[in-house]
Fold:
Amino acid sequence: MKSRARAPSTKAPVDWGKFDHNILVLQGGGALGAYQAGVYEGLVQAGFKPDWISGVSIGAINATLIAGNRPERRVQRLREFWERVSALASFVPLAPPDPMRSYFNAMGAASAVMVGVAGFFVPRVPPPFMAPDGSLGALSFYDTQPLKATLEELADFDLINSKAVRLSLGAVNVCTSESVYFDNTKTRIGPEHVMASGALPPGFPPVSVDGQWYWDGGISSNTPLWYVVDEAYLEGGIVVQVDVFSGTGALPGNLHQVQQRMKDLQYASKMRFGRGRLREQEELRESLRRVLAMLPEGVRTDPDVQRLTAISTRGKVVLAHLTNHHDTQSSDFKDYDFSRSTVTELWEGGLGDVRHAIEREAWLQAEEFAHDINVVDLTPVASPYQEPTP
Structure:
């Protein structure tokens, strides 16, 4: 899968500033994760070097391939993965807006449903309704053991557990509903942790980790932004968040578009809610700082006061956001259309979006959101939404 994206910008690599952390946050979204791989290639060209990556589902797989390889091999390993999973539908039809494109994409998605995805998952034989209750075979339509072999081949888990790059993978406990993050600063990461983060039912089975059963973290929260913001609030960082589902979009025009829009709304990051929560937290911190400043000097050594003082401060944060708006004409099956043409187009789309942001120096348009928190949307401006016909 050779990139056909336009040549790199002649601009110098971006001066990202000095932060405690360079953080990459990757959303779940199946085949749409190819967009994240393209974004990462663009970020490498822009001089962005993440020291902390947090992902959910396909974002967890991409994150593992990045953290599990030396910097000079990361893009190559991502490409190997995405070439492998699109190998069963390698034909390349005409590009959009050719009217036949959607039919070719539907064939690619049907291939994933019927025969699985190379290096990722295969249909269960016998099917789940013929398996005994309580067995793994009865809990999903597909077996994900091929993914385990792929991860062990393409990612170095010893390197991951050396903590050269922090890795945080979101999952949800099947029995307790608890949202958890497998973090290599707290536990030793293996293929099972990655597979647990991407175990979306009923397609994929739950994965056992230390005697507990886990499903895809996207069931609880499809974007791990707030984990990294809450986890290291005393430290500053630039956070590049890459979303593959868009929270904004046009009114659907048919039932396929209705299903597509429902999926977008279900899995898109809840940025508006999250930003409201973040703003509220920072306003409370400011109020706490003002109250603490009024305390007499003699009580400031009190342990409770010192704890409140620590809570009242946070590091400087820049939230940079990229969202996939590329229409590959895959409709409501876009997250399981692993056809080579669609995967290639998504990769090139992510790479092109980063290059476009560099060319227009989009990072200079960051706006202050709260005290020591700035936000910027690096996504190219989308076309205006179409108003519904009366």
